[in-house]
Design a protein that fits this description.
heterodimer; A: about 400 residues; alpha+beta; Rossmann fold; Dna Ligase, domain 1; 4 domains; four-stranded parallel beta sheet; 19 strands; globular; B: about 375 residues; Aminopeptidase; 2 domains; eleven-stranded mixed beta sheet; five-stranded antiparallel beta sheet; about 35% helix
Chain lengths: ~400, ~375
């Protein structure tokens, strides 16, 4: 009786410390996926080839486990799209000597002081800043820098680690709120006045390509959360080229030699200033927007870079985008019409409507330190004129509204 | 070693370096005691471990424009302690590292004359080349203050850890009264009260201290904190005392039995660096004279040519109450191998977590400050 022939699994293998979207794309691309988590959600465990539950804070133990797997079936690369795990992914890539974000770059993007120091050394402008350890030092720094100032955690904490302060009292409150025993130092930064832009990039072999430039709207309250984006950015071709070159220099200075990045830049009175660099895809629906306007799926691009493949490019499907976050001026209980979430648009515009909260949930005002945005309405169109009417229709259908506290 | 316009030379010890030329460059660079020729001479004479001098000098033409004191470290109790915090086994067993220049100093790294910024990059490149010549598996800088040089190393991919914070006070006030007026009134009154209450029966003064008393008080305090004295061996302290005598500025507290406490330091250029404390711990277990001595030091600095008072590491909450500003100090290391670099990064990550868990940095009561 003839023996059954084993089918060799020739799929490339990726070690992944990421989330659902990355796992989905890895599956679509036919990539053998070893997934690290702590613990692995059951839905993801079912989608990957090998889920591993490990203490991801113990790098040596994690390395020991994945080294054994690598010896049996070599990984092409290590990938993460989470801030918290970029250093681990860089570490594993370096130790296994496979593709991945350079470990120094991961650390330089992970810590705001390192980012500032590295960019300064590379001649890349950013806000003036001071390292502070207590409210007195912060107050002195704010006096030197001039109000308003931004007080922020050094580690990656997203918008929740940042406060915009206009007075000594607000600085003291921000330091009290953000100070942590395990991370006792904070940055006090000059608040750079000027329009802000989000620049999405793909870097291969040290060469950076800008794939989208979006004008960014930022709340002016205590938490400078991002409240919207526009495409085109309004900078014009020349302006975007200059901004792109500035971002490419910043990424080079930080050591980002491969992968994707989301960089926020303000055009201040003294010129462009880097506000933040994240060596990962942007949050919210910015990946979706970037894909619509550039034809590049950033998550797929990250995987392709890790695999050493060319980045897939499709035709852009939208020439104009209006992206607005759902936020509230006061606290209360939210209500909206869930039927609007299924709106896809009509005529010349496409819509994407999403909410992060269910009707009946509590929300806080956008300028509250614990507040934020609770949903997004994104309109895609070929012409600028089509955006506003479609956005209005979506908001009218969604009808986000609040019951005030105690009412 | 050359880097465009700069020529970097490796020296096997300060005996081969002209003291006046070296110190002149250090002064013009704004360098402190820890770069002084005499500090290095003492370190070479009686090192607190096994150190091989490997100093780098940057020249443009024949002019010395930058220095980077460094040692090939075979054994250092402070570094060994830091190694022991790593989950990566065998870092210490890999062999010596080239370090500019020691965890014992309050500052390290390249020092270059104004207008010679590229000389710093040349010295850093020289450090890598020297490491290769000396068979060091890794090289780097200890206690590098946050600033341009740190950014340069971060850009070069060095593994970096914030291991301590040094506290400085600007002492350019016209008078002590004007310094005190910068502190909030309530805090100022509270500090004065603490100074009076805790220093009863003690006389605080600036003086020169004999070596025997310096060693005894320093070791008494270390033992009181359970710190092994091998971080400050007697021969090392005596060598420093002797070589740095011209720069000594020490504040003492004396009672009827003699000198009970000291802040020993040196002023080189405009910075007065307080480097080691000592205490007759059997009598003053809680370092009762601390506030009075600190206040006296600040006033002595304000009324002399001192522009910056470096209060060193540790005791952050008290120093901050007197208006001291913290400067993060980094340990930065690199190797020639991507996989080894990853181990250094992982180690630095652990050091930083450990360091930031304490306001005093990397375990001040143990071995690293």
């Amino acid at each position: 009786m003839p023996e059954r022939l084993a089918t060799a699994d020739a799929r490339p293998s990726i070690l992944c410390v990421s989330g659902r979207r990355v796992v989905d794309v890895l599956g679509e691309m036919g990539v053998h996926t070893v997934f690290l988590s702590d613990p692995t959600p059951i839905d993801l465990a079912c989608l990957v080839d090998l889920p591993l539950d490990l203490d991801l804070d113990d790098w040596a133990a994690t390395e020991a486990v994945v080294r054994g797997l690598h010896d049996a079936r070599p990984f092409a690369g290590v990938l993460s799209v989470y801030d918290a795990y970029l250093p681990l992914a860089g570490y594993l890539a370096a130790r296994l000597d496979v593709a991945g974000l350079a470990l120094p770059a991961a650390f330089n993007c992970d810590n705001k002081l390192r980012m500032r120091l590295t960019l300064e050394a590379g001649g890349i402008a950013g806000p003036a800043y001071a390292v502070v350890g207590d409210p007195d030092e912060a107050a002195a720094a704010a006096r030197r820098l001039g109000y308003p100032v931004v007080v922020k955690k050094m580690g990656a904490a997203g918008g929740r680690g940042t406060r915009l302060c206009r007075s000594p009292e607000e600085v003291a409150a921000a330091v009290t709120a953000l100070w942590a025993e395990t991370s006792p130092n904070l940055l006090v930064e000059e608040h750079v006045e000027g329009p802000e832009y989000a620049v999405q990039t793909v870097t291969v072999g040290g060469a950076t390509e800008v794939i989208s430039v979006l004008a960014q709207h930022t709340a002016t309250g205590a938490r400078p959360v991002e409240t919207g984006y526009d495409f085109p950015s309004g900078l014009g071709d020349q302006g975007e080229v200059r901004l792109g070159a500035f971002v490419a220099r910043a990424l080079r200075a930080l050591g980002v030699d491969s992968g994707i990045a989301h960089t926020q830049v303000r055009l201040g009175p003294a010129g462009p200033a880097v506000i933040n660099v994240s060596a990962r895809p942007p949050g919210g629906r910015l990946c979706e927007v970037t894909e619509a306007v550039s034809g590049v799926d950033m998550v797929r691009a990250a995987i392709e870079v890790a695999l050493g493949r060319p980045v897939t490019r499709r035709s852009p499907v939208a020439g104009h985008v209006m992206y607005r976050c759902v936020a509230f001026d006061t606290a209360g209980t939210v209500d909206y019409d869930p039927g609007a979430l299924a709106m896809a648009g009509d005529g010349p515009a496409c819509l994407s409507v999403s909410m992060d909260v269910e009707p009946g949930e509590r929300v806080l005002p956008v300028d509250h330190v614990d507040g934020g945005v609770y949903g997004r309405v994104v309109v895609y169109a070929d012409t600028a004129e089509s955006l506003e009417p479609a956005y209005r229709r979506a908001v009218d259908a969604l009808r986000p509204r609040l019951k005030r506290n105690g009412t | 070693m050359t880097s465009h316009e700069y020529r970097v030379m490796l020296s096997g010890g300060v005996a081969g370096i002209d003291r006046d030329v070296w110190n002149d460059v250090v002064r013009r660079c704004g360098g402190t005691t820890f770069y002084a020729w005499e500090w290095l001479a003492a370190f070479e004479e009686a090192p607190p471990g096994t150190f091989q001098p490997a100093h780098l000098l940057a020249y443009r033409g024949d002019e010395l424009v930058g220095v980077c004191p460094a040692f090939l470290v075979h054994h250092c109790p402070r570094l060994d302690y830091a190694y022991s915090l790593s989950a990566a086994p065998g870092l210490r067993d890999r062999g010596p590292v080239l370090l500019a220049h020691s965890l014992a100093g309050l500052i390290g790294g390249p020092l270059v004359l104004p207008g010679h910024r590229d000389a710093a990059a040349a010295l850093i490149a020289g450090l890598e080349q020297a490491a290769s010549v000396l068979d060091a598996w890794a090289w780097g800088v200890a206690n590098l203050p946050a600033g341009a040089a740190t950014g340069l190393l971060l850009r070069e991919g060095y593994a970096v850890a914030h291991v301590a914070t040094a506290y400085h006070i600007d002492t350019t006030w016209p008078s002590p009264a004007e310094y005190w007026s910068t502190l909030p009134g309530r805090r100022r009154r509270k500090l004065w009260r603490e100074q009076r209450q805790r220093a009863e029966g003690l006389v605080i003064a600036e003086t020169r201290l004999d070596a025997d008393t310096m060693v005894r008080l320093a070791h008494d305090l270390l033992r009181a904190h359970g710190t092994p004295v091998d971080v400050f061996p007697e021969a090392y302290l005596r060598a420093l005392h002797r070589h740095l005598r011209p720069y000594e500025r020490t504040i003492v507290a004396a009672d009827a039995d003699g000198i009970a406490a000291m802040f020993s330091g040196w002023q080189f250029g405009a910075e007065w660096s307080l480097w080691i404390a000592g205490l007759r711990a059997a009598r003053y277990a809680a370092f009762e004279p601390y506030h009075s001595m600190l206040a006296h030091t600040i006033e002595a600095a304000v009324t002399s040519d001192t522009r910056v008072l470096n209060l060193g590491r540790g005791n952050a909450p008290i120093k901050r109450r007197y208006g001291a500003i913290g400067t993060p100090l980094f340990l930065a290391l690199k190797s020639a191998n991507r996989r080894h670099d990853a181990l250094l990064h992982a180690w630095c990550r652990q050091l930083e977590v450990r360091s930031q868990a304490s306001p005093d940095g990397l375990d001040v009561v143990s071995r690293c400050c």
